[in-house]
Amino acid sequence: MKIEHVFFDLDHTLWDFDKNSGLTFEKIFKLNNVNIEIDDFLRIYMPINLEYWRLYRDEKVTKEALRYNRLKKSFDKLNFEISDVLIDKLAIDYIDNLSSFNYLFEGTFEILDYLKSKYQLHIITNGFDEVQMKKMTSSKIIDYFDAIITSDSVGVKKPNPKVFNFALKKANATAENSVMIGDSLEADINGALNVGFNVIHCVFNDETATDNNVTSVANLLEIKQYL
Questions:
Q1: Phi, psi (5° rounding) for residue 147?
Q2: Are residues 158 and 177 in contact, defined by beta-carbon separation less than 8 angstroms?
Q3: Alpha carbon 27 to chain centroid, angstroms
Q4: Would the pTM count as exceeding 0.70?
Q5: How far apart are CA 157 and CA 9, in angstroms?
Q6: What tens digit of pLDDT does each residue of 13-59 get?
Q7: Sign of torsion, CA 186 191 193 197?
Q8: What is the enclosing helix (H) or strand (E) of 125?
Q9: Do you know which Gene3D superfamilies this protein is assigned to (predicted)?
Q10: What is the DSSP letter of 211?
Q11: Residue 183 has pLDDT above 90, yes or no
């Protein structure tokens, strides 16, 4: 069946989460007089953040626990003394300021312009509803998308099939005439495959594992080869 619908993940696929997140921490540390080397912090924080997102995705921690514990564990590992009150403030400041930085991956606007004339475009993201909408609005990509599905709006997270089935229903699409494009092999690719989607895996760095049986691209503009 001919592809009619293209579903994108947002973070790490279109929106450069690592770069924007690092700039946000640099900003809020200055605002709150947290005297710590940003590179040292990010080196510790990034794997801890990924660990807590996996726990959150698997329904093992709450949103509040994710926001607090990823910071608490990072500061503890760095032996940096900081009060719980300040950690809570940093967690709030981080969310409030994250969408003020809006670096997108190279080729984002070009590939969206190319695809928009041929397909209906949609977003499926595990991010928080209020944060993801601000990111897409501030980075000026929100108008490219017809249906925007967040895990908050569904009540479960990718790779849960309920997310993908909800997205298909909202977009008035079928799995057979849809393709899912994302960076996470587990959440985006395997999750979509299990529901019957076509898939394209974004492998933007050497650390991202891929499957030899799955179509993959090293940059967004390579998508033109397949769509």
A1: -110, 130
A2: no
A3: 21
A4: yes
A5: 12
A6: 999 999 999 999 999 999 999 999 999 999 999 999 999 998 988 88
A7: negative
A8: strand 120-125
A9: HAD superfamily/HAD-like, Putative phosphatase, domain 2
A10: -
A11: yes
Question: Cα–Cα distance between 23 and 147 in angstroms, integer?
Answer: 29
pLDDT in tens, 61-97: 998 999 999 999 999 999 999 999 999 999 999 999 9
Task: Check: CB of residue 99 under 8 Å from CB of residue 209.
Answer: no
CB atoms inside a 10 Å sphere around CB 207: 6
Output the six-digit token pair for 218. Answer: 């090293």
For the chain, what are the domain ranges?
5-15+104-225, 17-98
In CATH, the number for domain 5-15+104-225 is: 3.40.50.1000
Strands, sheet with 178-182, edge to edge from the N-terminal-most edge strand = 147-150, 120-125, 5-8, 178-182, 198-202, 216-217
pLDDT in tens, 125-178: 998 888 999 999 999 999 999 999 999 889 899 999 999 999 999 999 999 999
> Distance between CA 4 and CA 17 in Å, rounded?
28
**How far is the C-alpha of 29 from the C-alpha of 48, rounded, in Å?**
18
Tell me the two tokens of residue 29: 């540390």
| pLDDT score, position 1 | 62
169-192-161 Cα angle (round to 5): 60
Fold match between domain 5-15+104-225 and domain 17-98: no
For residue 73, with 0-12 CB atoms within 10 Å meaning exposed, 13-18 middle and 19 or more buried, which class applies? middle
